[in-house]
Write a structure and sequence with these properties.
The complex is a heterodimer of chains A (485) and B (307).
Chain A: E1 3-8, E2 17-23, E3 25-26, H1 39-57, E4 62-63, E5 66-67, E6 69-72, E7 77-80, E8 83-85, H2 90-111, H3 114-118, H4 121-137, H5 140-148, H6 155-181, H7 186-194, H8 200-220, H9 222-228, H10 230-234, E9 245-248, H11 250-253, H12 265-268, H13 278-282, H14 302-314, E10 321-324, H15 326-330, H16 335-339, H17 345-366, E11 371-377, E12 384-386, E13 390-401, E14 407-414, E15 420-423, E16 431-434, E17 438-449, E18 456-468, E19 474-483
Antiparallel strand pairs in A: 1-2, 4-5, 6-7, 7-8, 9-10, 11-13, 12-13, 13-17, 14-16, 14-18, 15-17, 18-19
Chain B: H1 7-30, E1 33-37, E2 50-51, E3 55-56, E4 62-63, H2 64-83, H3 98-122, H4 125-129, H5 132-145, H6 147-150, H7 174-183, E5 185-189, H8 197-210, H9 217-230, H10 232-235, H11 261-270, E6 272-276, H12 285-299
Antiparallel strand pairs in B: 2-3, 5-6
Helix pairs in contact in B: 1-2, 3-12, 5-12, 7-12, 8-9, 8-11
The chains are: A alpha+beta (485), B mainly alpha (307).
Chain lengths: 485, 307
């Protein structure tokens, strides 16, 4: 921190108070996390592989001769395997977002930032990029040495940096390419790239996402978690005394201090912490877990893995840094008794809301009607008389088939005696066919015998009954029929 | 910047904008550091601000790149104001405008559609009418431009002709339909208010009889003379109408304003004014070609199978 001293004298008799100028901005300290192995590191590797298989693989799957998962923004249709979502289905997206948020709350209340440590793209890509960095430049101390090298750079430094960035950029480009592949058919996209015929916006987004990946995973890293991510800031209101979090057992560890393996720690009056600072060296956000739970902690468990190895070497019991709850740590309870507090109101409420929402979500998704109908009465003319025998009203009917097979629908009107639906040419309409995943607009006229009705506006109903199609569904739509005076 | 009634507003806005950016930069630079008291050993623990006896404000500094982002935002803003309109009435050196962007999009769309339209411009109206794709386009054009008066089903309503029947006021030949769309039509039936009410009721009876509608025989016989001297000039001696004048055929049971005695009496007494607006300025020749074929197809069976 930038501190320049200045002195100020306040009055004659009062003591001199030192006033220090302090910067409100700090220069970022680069973090060189040391590699770590252990159960939590293995879990993270599993999640990195799983999430990336999913992310890189999904756009290449096919379904019904089309890309299985494709968000077609131009046509405004989202394809998710057998499901075709239209803009009218945006409620599902809303529900999905609410569900994701609630799940995040639930996981956080149970065991802290599980998402951050294992599944967040920021963590996952940082992990991949750090793995490359370690393979190319070496572990923590090798990297510190390399970066400490003064200008001009040695040939070795140039070589390592160029190799590292080349690999980073390759992965970033592939990530950007895959991302675009969710919005443009990825096979066409790859053909276009090979032919250098990408559209201007495709090119822009490809490089934009690649740049974002390269910048966030290569450079910004923990800065994103510490300063940009809102989740980090509000997690403190979602954890409580019974939440499992990465915890340093200060009752057991303090007072900390270095010692020889042969020395008797009780004689020296020391706790179990040997103050080796390995937990700090492995931390990807550069914090000291021994200071307690902090908003910068992403719950990755690297310090647990690292500390357990040290404890093994010292022949101390494992778990000086471990997943436990605040209550259990302070009361020296076992993890088993900490787990007995799992079913507390907070957890039960979150779980039941999630359960209800998932039920609603699934129910409405499986009973979703692929037939949508809109009836618009012509506004230009109220009604017309035909041959002095019939009254006609004109409507535009918009039929939407959001399934992937053609749909035949019977059209009928009810609400007045002898009511008939005619096409523009005057023939009676019995049924219409709507092509798969498309709209059909038909102008129709509804005809009623003139001596059957009195003048005024009459409520009528259009009935659409599915006859053929993947799902046979129906829909009714209200409208009005006007008889002039 | 004609939106402002005085150029002073433009200058005022430009000044507020520039002063705002400069003020932001000054605020950033001047607030980078703060003066805090240190304890006796020279350590700084907090900013020295204390509330409610023991609530102390700590200094958790933002990363410096964050400050740089603020500064970059200011620079971005300045560059933007040089390139794009935004600084009062200044148009920016790129000369960008939303109007130009819109025009550009329209031009691109027209260029993309050109090959589609070019094909139809080569074809005769009868051929275009037989093309299902052109029919689809024609229907969309019709719903946009014509349906307000003629109805979505082209069935017309009182005062607006039905386009399905073969009764064309100005002729049903493709070229005549095109002329109707391009130039519009004004169908004027003059008022015959100077006729006596007896004469009017006689001529109404005669006109109804032309379409075989029930009418008093005596009046029909008397009405013929009234018709010959007043109506035949336009509607023709046999009542078959005249497509050059747009005078309706009175013998085909198609009634634009109604067939009741009351309606015909009103027509004779007060006259009628039918207006079809011209679309030359609204539609391109290509669109008019497709629309003409669509309207022609409504009342004619195109040569090849329709639908």
């Amino acid at each position: 921190m930038n501190q320049t001293s200045a002195t100020q004298t306040a009055g004659d008799s009062k003591p001199v108070i030192e006033i220090v100028e302090q910067s409100l901005y700090e220069v970022r300290k680069h973090i060189y996390p040391r590699s770590v192995s252990g159960p939590f590191a293995s879990w993270r590797l599993v999640f990195v592989v799983l999430t990336q298989l999913l992310y890189y693989g999904l756009p290449w799957l096919s379904w019904n001769d089309r890309q299985a998962v494709l968000f077609d923004l131009v046509q405004r249709k989202f394809y998710i395997f057998g499901l075709v979502l239209w803009p009218q289905d945006v409620i599902y997206l809303t529900l999905l977002l609410i569900l994701s948020a609630l799940s995040l709350f639930l996981f956080t209340a149970v065991a802290g930032r599980l998402f951050c440590g294992y599944a967040c793209p920021q963590t996952v890509y940082t992990e991949i990029f750090m793995w490359i960095e370690r393979k190319v430049e070496g572990d923590r101390f090798a990297r510190i040495r390399l970066d400490g090298e003064e200008w001009p750079w040695s040939f070795k430094k140039w070589r390592l940096k160029i190799i590292k960035h080349a690999l980073w950029i390759a992965i970033a480009l592939w990530t950007g390419f895959t991302f675009i592949g969710y919005f443009t058919p990825i096979k066409e996209l790859s053909a276009n790239i090979l032919a250098f015929s990408l559209g201007p916006w495709q090119t822009f987004w490809l490089f934009f996402y690649s740049f974002a990946t390269w910048g966030n995973a290569g450079f910004m890293r923990e800065q994103v978690c510490k300063y940009m991510c809102p989740y980090a800031r509000f997690q403190s209101v979602m954890v409580d005394k019974d939440t499992f979090v990465v915890t340093y057992d200060k009752m057991r560890g303090e007072p900390r201090g270095s010692r020889n393996k042969s020395e008797n720690q009780a004689q020296k009056g020391l706790g179990d912490c040997v103050d080796c600072s390995i937990c700090v060296q492995v931390c990807p956000t550069g914090i000291d877990i021994r200071d307690g739970l902090q908003y910068m902690c992403i719950g990755c468990g690297a310090c647990i893995d690292a500390c357990n190895q040290v404890m093994d070497k010292m022949r101390y019991p494992k778990g000086l840094v471990r997943y436990t709850t605040e209550r259990a740590m302070l009361n020296r309870e076992s993890n088993q008794s900490a787990r007995s507090h799992l079913f507390r109101p907070r957890i039960l409420i979150y779980s039941s809301i999630i359960f209800v929402l998932i039920s609603v979500f699934l129910f409405s998704l499986f009973t979703r009607n692929p037939l949508r109908v809109d009836v618009m009465r012509d506004r230009g003319a109220l009604a017309r008389e035909v041959d002095g025998r019939y009254i006609e009203n004109v409507y535009r009917i918009q039929l939407m088939n959001s399934s992937e097979s053609p749909m035949r629908v019977a059209v009928k009107a009810t609400g007045l005696p002898d009511i008939a639906v005619l096409d523009a040419g005057g023939k009676v309409i019995h049924s219409v066919v709507i092509a798969p995943a498309s709209n059909l607009l038909i102008p129709v006229k509804v005809s009623v015998a003139i001596n059957e009705v009195i003048s005024g506006s009459h409520p009528i109903q259009f009935e659409f009954r599915g006859l053929e199609g993947e799902q046979i569904r129906s829909r009714d739509e209200k409208s009005s029929f006007i008889v002039p005076r | 910047m004609s939106d402002f009634f005085s150029p002073g507003w433009s200058i005022f806005i430009a000044i507020v904008t520039i002063v705002g950016i400069v003020w932001c930069l000054w605020l950033l630079m001047s607030q980078r550091k703060t003066k805090v008291p240190a304890d006796s050993s020279g350590n700084v623990t907090d900013t020295g601000h204390v509330w409610d006896d023991d609530l102390r404000e700590l200094n958790n500094p933002l990363p410096r790149w964050w400050m740089w982002m603020f500064i970059i935002s200011c620079i971005f803003g300045a560059i933007y104001l040089v390139l794009y309109p935004g600084l009062g009435a200044y148009q920016g050196i790129l000369g960008y405008s939303t109007q130009a962007e819109h025009d550009q999009s329209v031009q691109t769309a027209n260029k993309d559609l050109q090959p589609v339209y070019a094909k139809y411009m080569q074809m005769s109206i009868e051929q275009v009418a037989a093309d299902p794709k052109a029919n689809e386009m024609g229907q969309r054009l019709f719903l946009n431009y014509c349906a307000q008066c003629h109805g979505s089903d082209a069935g017309g309503s009182k005062g607006f002709p039905n386009l399905h029947d073969k009764d064309y006021l100005y002729g049903g030949e493709p070229e005549l339909i095109r002329t109707s769309i391009v130039q519009g039509r004004a169908g004027v039936m003059p008022a015959f208010g100077h006729l006596s009410s007896a004469q009017i009721s006689e001529v109404v009876a005669y006109v109804r009889s032309l379409s075989n509608l029930p009418a008093n025989d005596l009046r029909v016989a008397q009405g013929e003379a009234v018709y010959k001297s007043n109506c035949a000039a336009c509607h023709g001696p046999d009542g078959k109408g005249n497509i050059i004048l747009g005078a309706p055929n009175l013998t085909d049971r198609v009634w634009l304003y109604g067939s009741s005695e009351k309606a015909i009496t009103e027509t004779v007494q007060k006259g009628r004014n039918g207006v079809m607006p011209g679309h030359e300025a609204i539609l391109t020749p290509e669109k008019i070609q497709i629309l003409t074929a669509y309207v022609w197809g409504l009342s004619h069976q195109p040569m090849s199978t329709k639908k």
